[in-house]
Amino acid sequence: MKRWLVLIVLLLGISSLQAQSRIIYFKATALGDSVRLNFTISSGTACAGYNVLKGSDSLNLNPVYVYPGICGNNSSNESYAYTDFSPNKTTPNFYRILIPPGDYSNMLRVDVAASFSDMIIFPQPTEDLLNIKFLNKSYFYYEMKIYDRFGRKMGETNGNSSDRITVNVSGLPIGLYAFMIIDINGNAYRGKFLKTNSN
């Protein structure tokens, strides 16, 4: 009888270990009109991709991105990032990460403001020069970072603005980008732009 009891306790312990998610860290950050997701998959057997799930309520989430490659690492944790450039602006955004077939992260909610009236970003789309004009601010020191759709930093610059900040983005591949500008007082300004090629 004691052997059976020990065996049952061991089996319950093993099944509870298997039920733990490999997604050990998950954070969502609102970046003005985009949302950056960062998550970490614990070391262990490689997984066959992951899905980023999103919905306007906590019950109906759909895939917005499917990573088709191999994820995870046998010897160390691996971190990943994804940027949602089209979050809902009038309803909450709910996010989860799924490692198929059934390993889910916790669910996160992000509310994104609908108004970005404090700056004008032009031209949209741009081929070479991007201009950012602040309606109530000029002549200040800034640091700017540019990120691609997957949250990878693609460029950075700094300087003193005049009535606008002008950045040469001609070296960037075609695509949608987010940027973050921080002024000398630590105030953050975020936006996005579409880069195209000249014909």
Written description of the protein model:
It is a single chain. This protein has 199 residues and is mainly beta. It has two domains: 90 residues, Sandwich (Immunoglobulin-like); 77 residues, Immunoglobulin-like (Sandwich). It is 9% helix and 46% strand. Strands 3, 4, 6, 7 and 8 form a five-stranded antiparallel sheet that branches. The longest helix has 17 residues. The radius of gyration is 22 Å and the shape is elongated. The protein starts with a helix and ends with a strand. About 5% of the residues have low confidence.
| The CATH topology of the largest domain | Immunoglobulin-like
Q: Helix proportion of residues, in percent?
A: under 10%
- Report the mean per-residue pLDDT as an integer: 85
- Global structural class: mainly beta
Instruction: Work out the radius of gyration.
Output: 22 Å
DSSP, total strands: 15
Element string (H = helix, E = strand): HEEEEEEEEEEEEEEE
Largest sheet: 5 strands, antiparallel
Q: What overall form do the CA principal axes indicate?
A: elongated
Tally of helical segments: 1
